[in-house]
Amino acid sequence: MRLLDLATLLVCVTAALAFLNARFLRLPASIGVTVGGLVVSLGLLALVGLGVPFALQAVDLVRGIGFDDFVFEGVLSFLLFAGALGVNSHALWSLRGPVLSFALLSTALSIGLVGVTVYGLVGLFGLNVPLVYCLLFGALISPTDPVAVLGMLKQANVPRRIETLVAGESLFNDGVGVVAFAVLAGIAAAGGEAHGPDLSAGGVLGYLGYVALRAVNDFVVEVLVTLGLVLACTAVATHLHVSAPLAAVAAGLLVGSLTDRRPAALSSREKFDSFWHLTDELLNIFLFALLALEVVVVRFSGQALLLGLIAIPLVLLIRAVSVQVPVTLLGRRHGFSPFTRRLMIWGGLRGAISVALAFTVPAGPQRDLFLVMTYVVVVFSIIVQGLTVGRLAARAGEGTGRTLH
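RESULT FIELD:
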């Protein structure tokens, strides 16, 4: 599909779903678009089953969308850069130990536990799926969606310390999960090349971007500089075979930190933040609309749906275990509140990034199986957890007050 066709289809579908949600459902934008898109997808699948020509053509059109390329080369870096800009870098540095522990240890534990458990589960159903593919599922389903988590935290009056910890862990575990997925995918593809993470590329480019921002005093130029910075991070990381998501996070944190220290580097901090917040919101909604479109090309089966339903409590339970381990190890020193654990567990939303990774699983019967399982977990996470986590966040804010500790 040509880029213009994809952009036209995506914007029109997103606008229609967002309008219907605002007019009738009145749910949070990402959740409303997901629900509306699910209804549209199911209706389209029913028409396909009836052999309606228009529906068949629509499915062929959607099959031409390079979902993973669109997400990783066109959206993900922008989303993570925008999220990193909004993180309090000074507070994040003070919590660097817990954040890195959760991002590295919790993600690694989750990948291993999910992979081994799913390997045993599919064996009980008589399916012969290699362990490395089950670990791939663990890698794609373990990272939380930073956009969904950051959006929830912005709306809730949670304490700053909890906000920084949850937001920082979500930003970095996404990059860690992508890198782990790339390594495992290389093993699964029998010799495919795997690449490691590197924050230095994003740090260098981020500092160059800051120097450019400091040298001008024009809002339009500042926006163009940061847009170019994100694209440069993605392109350079791709050519250097390092992690583009982590490079974008590093660049966003550095630009955000330096401009916080020297507010004069930006002509209007309020306008600058508003632009990136709007960009963040729009791309988030586009992702969920594209996620809904991709449902029509997934081959659903009763067995895969059942495994997906079983995976929902399984993933939540393992998320709880993987969060509790660092809390136990670091608890005496950092004193985590009960609300921190609850928010990190129930607020660990899975989103379109997991589905995008699932579409890059090496071709084979296990690919369709994990696509269905991933979609079921993601839909539950967005709708059920997404609609209820705000109340938990509000309780955290009311119970502890918005203070640093």
